[in-house]
Amino acid sequence: MERVSLLTDVRRTNDEIAAENQAIFRSVATLTINLMSAPGAGKTTVLERTILRLTDHYRFAVIEGDLQTSIDSERILALGVPAHQITTGSVCHLEARMVRKAITGFPPARVDLLFIENVGNLVCPAEFNLGEDLRVMVYSVVEGVEKPKKYPLMFYKADVVLLNKIDLVPYAGVELEKLRRNVIEVNPRAVIFPISCSTGEGVDAWTQWLTKRIGA
After folding, report:
1. How far apart are CA 26 and CA 32, in angstroms?
2. Which end of the chain has the lower number of beta carbons within 10 A, N or C?
3. 132 and 34 in contact (C-beta within 8 Å)?
4. Beta bridge partners of 140
5. Three-state DSSP state, 162
């Protein structure tokens, strides 16, 4: 009983800070996206492809969360986009307080679109609000069609699900339509984009949708 109470207090504090973060982002019209996935699903590659398509029209910034190393933030910096690294050590998700600390030296007023790339994990990141406007989940199709039902929380909380690596479908024995149905069964309101960052298939549809959200 005491443990449940402690977790409740942690979540309540996180939600309070998240609400403050969101107020900051909205006050300067910065659209903020919490990008989540399991390790290796392709979050950073999705970010690179998105930035390359839209960088002439919008100002980007990225907060990178990882257990160790700054490999991903270095990839974003190489595109000429500001990137702030959060190294969590043993913590399997980002929290609102971490984002708050990051933006103190990272003024959102100069940014149209802020991506927060969460730690690679299929469970924990979905439990913590960061103050984002949208939750976008990247899911590698080679992980199988059953994961939406086995790990439903992240799929359920996602506004958008990017089914990545569809160029590997013929080699992975995955039925893409069945995977789509499983996602919809868990989350009927999710917007789904099958994409391949290798071939570029579907990426334009995703970035066009995102452009409309930025405009809104």
Report:
1. 9
2. N
3. yes
4. 164
5. strand
169 class by beta-carbon count within 10 Å (0-12 exposed, 13-18 middle, 19+ buried)? middle
Nearest Cα residue to 72 out of 87, 59, 57: 87
Domains of the chain as residue ranges with CATH: 2-215 (3.40.50.300)
pLDDT single digits (tens) 148-195:
999 999 999 999 999 999 999 999 989 999 999 999 999 999 999 999
Span 30-76, pLDDT tens digits:
999 999 999 999 999 999 999 999 999 999 999 999 988 899 999 99
By three-state DSSP, how is residue 55 classified? coil
Sheet with 160-164, edge to edge strand ranges = 83-87, 60-66, 113-117, 31-36, 134-140, 160-164, 191-194
